[in-house]
Amino acid sequence: MSLDLSRSRLNSIASRFRRTRAGVFADRFIFNRFEVPTLVGIVVIAAFLWGFAHLASEVLEGDTNAFDRAVLLALRNPADLADPIGPGWFEGMARDITALGGVAVLTFLTVAVAGWLWMRGNGRTMWLVLLSSAGGFAVSHLLKEVFGRARPDLVPHGATVYTASFPSSHSMMSAAIYLTLAALVARVEPRRRVKAYLLVVASLLSVLVGLSRIYLGVHWPTDVIAGWALGATWALIWWMGARWLESRGVVEPERDEPSSPQD
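C-alpha coordinates predicted for Undecaprenyl-diphosphatase:
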Protein backbone atom coordinates (compact mmCIF):
# COMPACT_ATOMS: atom_id res chain seq x y z
CA MET A 1 0.00 0.00 0.00
CA SER A 2 2.77 2.45 0.95
CA LEU A 3 4.57 1.64 -2.31
CA ASP A 4 1.43 2.45 -4.31
CA LEU A 5 1.03 5.75 -2.44
CA SER A 6 4.66 6.66 -3.15
CA ARG A 7 4.21 5.95 -6.83
CA SER A 8 1.02 8.01 -6.86
CA ARG A 9 2.81 10.96 -5.25
CA LEU A 10 5.72 10.67 -7.70
CA ASN A 11 3.33 10.61 -10.65
CA SER A 12 1.52 13.67 -9.25
CA ILE A 13 4.79 15.57 -8.81
CA ALA A 14 5.95 14.59 -12.31
CA SER A 15 2.64 15.72 -13.77
CA ARG A 16 2.89 19.10 -12.02
CA PHE A 17 6.48 19.50 -13.25
CA ARG A 18 5.44 18.81 -16.83
CA ARG A 19 2.60 21.33 -16.61
CA THR A 20 4.90 23.93 -15.07
CA ARG A 21 7.56 23.37 -17.72
CA ALA A 22 4.96 23.59 -20.47
CA GLY A 23 3.70 26.83 -18.97
CA VAL A 24 7.20 28.29 -18.89
CA PHE A 25 7.79 27.32 -22.52
CA ALA A 26 4.40 28.81 -23.45
CA ASP A 27 5.28 32.06 -21.70
CA ARG A 28 8.61 32.18 -23.50
CA PHE A 29 6.88 31.57 -26.80
CA ILE A 30 4.39 34.36 -26.16
CA PHE A 31 7.24 36.68 -25.14
CA ASN A 32 9.16 35.86 -28.30
CA ARG A 33 6.05 36.01 -30.47
CA PHE A 34 4.56 39.25 -29.21
CA GLU A 35 6.57 41.08 -26.56
CA VAL A 36 10.00 41.38 -28.22
CA PRO A 37 8.66 42.73 -31.56
CA THR A 38 6.36 45.05 -29.63
CA LEU A 39 9.19 46.41 -27.50
CA VAL A 40 11.38 46.92 -30.57
CA GLY A 41 8.50 48.66 -32.31
CA ILE A 42 7.99 51.01 -29.36
CA VAL A 43 11.68 51.92 -29.35
CA VAL A 44 11.68 52.60 -33.10
CA ILE A 45 8.50 54.67 -32.87
CA ALA A 46 9.98 56.72 -30.03
CA ALA A 47 13.14 57.29 -32.08
CA PHE A 48 11.18 58.41 -35.16
CA LEU A 49 8.97 60.74 -33.14
CA TRP A 50 11.97 62.26 -31.38
CA GLY A 51 13.66 62.74 -34.75
CA PHE A 52 10.55 64.40 -36.18
CA ALA A 53 10.17 66.71 -33.17
CA HIS A 54 13.84 67.71 -33.33
CA LEU A 55 13.68 68.31 -37.08
CA ALA A 56 10.46 70.33 -36.76
CA SER A 57 12.12 72.51 -34.13
CA GLU A 58 15.12 73.11 -36.39
CA VAL A 59 12.84 73.95 -39.32
CA LEU A 60 10.81 76.45 -37.30
CA GLU A 61 14.01 78.15 -36.13
CA GLY A 62 15.38 78.33 -39.68
CA ASP A 63 18.43 76.20 -38.89
CA THR A 64 17.81 73.89 -41.87
CA ASN A 65 17.58 76.62 -44.50
CA ALA A 66 21.19 76.32 -45.68
CA PHE A 67 20.91 72.55 -46.08
CA ASP A 68 17.56 72.75 -47.86
CA ARG A 69 18.75 75.40 -50.30
CA ALA A 70 22.00 73.60 -51.07
CA VAL A 71 20.22 70.35 -51.97
CA LEU A 72 17.63 72.01 -54.19
CA LEU A 73 20.25 74.05 -56.05
CA ALA A 74 22.44 70.97 -56.53
CA LEU A 75 19.58 69.36 -58.47
CA ARG A 76 19.22 72.30 -60.90
CA ASN A 77 21.14 73.56 -63.90
CA PRO A 78 23.12 76.58 -62.58
CA ALA A 79 22.51 78.43 -65.85
CA ASP A 80 18.73 77.85 -65.69
CA LEU A 81 17.10 77.05 -62.35
CA ALA A 82 13.91 76.03 -64.16
CA ASP A 83 15.81 73.08 -65.63
CA PRO A 84 16.42 70.08 -63.32
CA ILE A 85 19.63 68.16 -63.91
CA GLY A 86 19.38 65.14 -66.18
CA PRO A 87 17.70 64.44 -69.52
CA GLY A 88 14.10 65.36 -70.25
CA TRP A 89 12.87 61.78 -69.98
CA PHE A 90 14.22 61.61 -66.42
CA GLU A 91 12.13 64.62 -65.40
CA GLY A 92 9.08 62.95 -66.93
CA MET A 93 9.84 59.79 -65.00
CA ALA A 94 10.06 61.81 -61.78
CA ARG A 95 6.57 63.18 -62.44
CA ASP A 96 5.27 59.66 -62.98
CA ILE A 97 6.84 58.47 -59.74
CA THR A 98 5.56 61.42 -57.72
CA ALA A 99 2.01 60.58 -58.84
CA LEU A 100 2.34 57.28 -56.97
CA GLY A 101 2.18 59.30 -53.74
CA GLY A 102 -0.87 61.32 -54.77
CA VAL A 103 -4.31 61.10 -53.19
CA ALA A 104 -5.95 59.50 -56.23
CA VAL A 105 -3.45 56.66 -56.60
CA LEU A 106 -3.20 55.94 -52.87
CA THR A 107 -6.99 55.98 -52.43
CA PHE A 108 -7.51 53.64 -55.37
CA LEU A 109 -4.83 51.28 -54.12
CA THR A 110 -6.25 51.26 -50.59
CA VAL A 111 -9.78 50.48 -51.80
CA ALA A 112 -8.47 47.81 -54.18
CA VAL A 113 -6.49 46.05 -51.45
CA ALA A 114 -9.43 46.35 -49.04
CA GLY A 115 -11.68 44.68 -51.62
CA TRP A 116 -9.15 41.89 -52.12
CA LEU A 117 -8.99 41.26 -48.37
CA TRP A 118 -12.78 41.22 -48.14
CA MET A 119 -13.04 38.64 -50.94
CA ARG A 120 -10.47 36.50 -49.13
CA GLY A 121 -12.59 36.54 -46.00
CA ASN A 122 -10.24 38.85 -44.07
CA GLY A 123 -12.91 41.40 -43.25
CA ARG A 124 -11.37 42.61 -40.00
CA THR A 125 -7.97 43.15 -41.58
CA MET A 126 -9.79 45.03 -44.35
CA TRP A 127 -11.14 47.51 -41.78
CA LEU A 128 -7.64 48.02 -40.41
CA VAL A 129 -6.47 48.94 -43.91
CA LEU A 130 -9.29 51.45 -44.42
CA LEU A 131 -8.99 53.04 -40.98
CA SER A 132 -5.20 53.34 -41.14
CA SER A 133 -5.32 55.03 -44.54
CA ALA A 134 -8.09 57.47 -43.63
CA GLY A 135 -6.38 58.32 -40.36
CA GLY A 136 -3.07 58.91 -42.11
CA PHE A 137 -4.61 61.43 -44.51
CA ALA A 138 -6.24 63.25 -41.60
CA VAL A 139 -2.99 63.45 -39.60
CA SER A 140 -1.03 64.67 -42.63
CA HIS A 141 -3.54 67.44 -43.36
CA LEU A 142 -3.64 68.51 -39.71
CA LEU A 143 0.14 68.77 -39.43
CA LYS A 144 0.37 70.87 -42.59
CA GLU A 145 -2.15 73.29 -41.10
CA VAL A 146 -0.25 73.42 -37.81
CA PHE A 147 3.19 74.15 -39.29
CA GLY A 148 2.09 76.15 -42.35
CA ARG A 149 5.56 76.17 -43.92
CA ALA A 150 5.79 77.85 -47.31
CA ARG A 151 6.73 75.84 -50.37
CA PRO A 152 10.21 76.30 -51.87
CA ASP A 153 10.47 79.52 -53.88
CA LEU A 154 14.11 79.00 -54.75
CA VAL A 155 13.42 77.09 -57.97
CA PRO A 156 10.38 76.77 -60.26
CA HIS A 157 8.08 73.91 -59.32
CA GLY A 158 7.96 70.85 -61.55
CA ALA A 159 4.45 69.92 -60.37
CA THR A 160 1.31 71.72 -59.25
CA VAL A 161 0.91 72.12 -55.47
CA TYR A 162 -1.95 73.40 -53.32
CA THR A 163 -1.05 72.84 -49.67
CA ALA A 164 1.64 73.83 -47.18
CA SER A 165 5.07 72.27 -47.31
CA PHE A 166 5.88 70.64 -43.94
CA PRO A 167 5.72 67.70 -43.70
CA SER A 168 5.55 66.32 -47.22
CA SER A 169 2.19 64.57 -47.52
CA HIS A 170 3.39 62.59 -50.56
CA SER A 171 6.33 61.25 -48.53
CA MET A 172 4.32 60.66 -45.38
CA MET A 173 1.33 59.03 -47.05
CA SER A 174 3.37 56.90 -49.44
CA ALA A 175 5.35 55.58 -46.47
CA ALA A 176 2.26 55.23 -44.29
CA ILE A 177 0.00 53.56 -46.84
CA TYR A 178 2.50 51.46 -48.79
CA LEU A 179 4.19 50.18 -45.63
CA THR A 180 0.90 49.63 -43.79
CA LEU A 181 -0.63 47.82 -46.75
CA ALA A 182 2.49 45.68 -47.10
CA ALA A 183 2.52 44.83 -43.39
CA LEU A 184 -1.19 43.99 -43.22
CA VAL A 185 -1.28 42.07 -46.51
CA ALA A 186 1.80 40.15 -45.35
CA ARG A 187 -0.28 38.92 -42.42
CA VAL A 188 -2.47 36.86 -44.76
CA GLU A 189 0.48 35.67 -46.88
CA PRO A 190 2.12 32.53 -45.44
CA ARG A 191 5.35 32.61 -47.46
CA ARG A 192 8.10 34.55 -45.73
CA ARG A 193 9.88 35.44 -48.95
CA VAL A 194 6.71 37.08 -50.22
CA LYS A 195 6.29 38.95 -46.92
CA ALA A 196 9.84 40.31 -47.23
CA TYR A 197 9.29 41.17 -50.90
CA LEU A 198 6.16 43.19 -50.08
CA LEU A 199 7.98 45.22 -47.42
CA VAL A 200 11.00 45.87 -49.65
CA VAL A 201 8.83 47.07 -52.55
CA ALA A 202 6.78 49.29 -50.23
CA SER A 203 9.93 50.83 -48.76
CA LEU A 204 11.43 51.44 -52.21
CA LEU A 205 8.25 53.13 -53.44
CA SER A 206 8.21 55.41 -50.40
CA VAL A 207 11.82 56.45 -50.93
CA LEU A 208 11.36 57.10 -54.66
CA VAL A 209 8.24 59.21 -54.13
CA GLY A 210 10.01 61.35 -51.55
CA LEU A 211 13.08 61.85 -53.73
CA SER A 212 10.89 62.83 -56.68
CA ARG A 213 9.34 65.63 -54.60
CA ILE A 214 12.77 67.10 -53.94
CA TYR A 215 13.88 66.68 -57.55
CA LEU A 216 10.78 68.49 -58.83
CA GLY A 217 11.43 71.36 -56.42
CA VAL A 218 8.03 71.18 -54.71
CA HIS A 219 9.40 70.29 -51.27
CA TRP A 220 12.38 71.15 -49.14
CA PRO A 221 14.46 68.05 -48.31
CA THR A 222 13.57 68.37 -44.62
CA ASP A 223 9.87 68.20 -45.55
CA VAL A 224 10.48 64.82 -47.12
CA ILE A 225 12.61 63.49 -44.27
CA ALA A 226 9.90 64.47 -41.79
CA GLY A 227 7.27 62.79 -43.97
CA TRP A 228 9.24 59.55 -44.09
CA ALA A 229 9.65 59.54 -40.30
CA LEU A 230 5.95 60.11 -39.67
CA GLY A 231 4.82 57.66 -42.34
CA ALA A 232 7.02 54.88 -41.00
CA THR A 233 5.79 55.66 -37.48
CA TRP A 234 2.17 55.48 -38.61
CA ALA A 235 2.75 52.12 -40.31
CA LEU A 236 4.48 50.73 -37.21
CA ILE A 237 1.63 51.84 -34.96
CA TRP A 238 -0.93 50.01 -37.08
CA TRP A 239 1.27 46.93 -37.42
CA MET A 240 1.62 46.77 -33.64
CA GLY A 241 -2.10 47.37 -33.26
CA ALA A 242 -2.84 44.46 -35.57
CA ARG A 243 -0.60 42.19 -33.50
CA TRP A 244 -2.28 43.32 -30.28
CA LEU A 245 -5.75 42.71 -31.72
CA GLU A 246 -4.61 39.32 -33.00
CA SER A 247 -3.44 38.30 -29.52
CA ARG A 248 -6.98 38.99 -28.29
CA GLY A 249 -8.70 37.21 -31.13
CA VAL A 250 -10.17 40.39 -32.61
CA VAL A 251 -8.54 40.10 -36.05
CA GLU A 252 -7.55 37.09 -38.06
CA PRO A 253 -4.27 35.46 -36.96
CA GLU A 254 -1.19 36.02 -39.08
CA ARG A 255 -0.45 33.22 -41.50
CA ASP A 256 3.05 31.82 -41.61
CA GLU A 257 4.67 28.97 -43.44
CA PRO A 258 5.18 25.89 -41.26
CA SER A 259 8.55 25.30 -39.68
CA SER A 260 10.75 22.77 -41.44
CA PRO A 261 10.65 19.34 -39.77
CA GLN A 262 13.43 18.51 -37.36
CA ASP A 263 15.46 15.35 -37.93
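The chain has eight helices and two strands.
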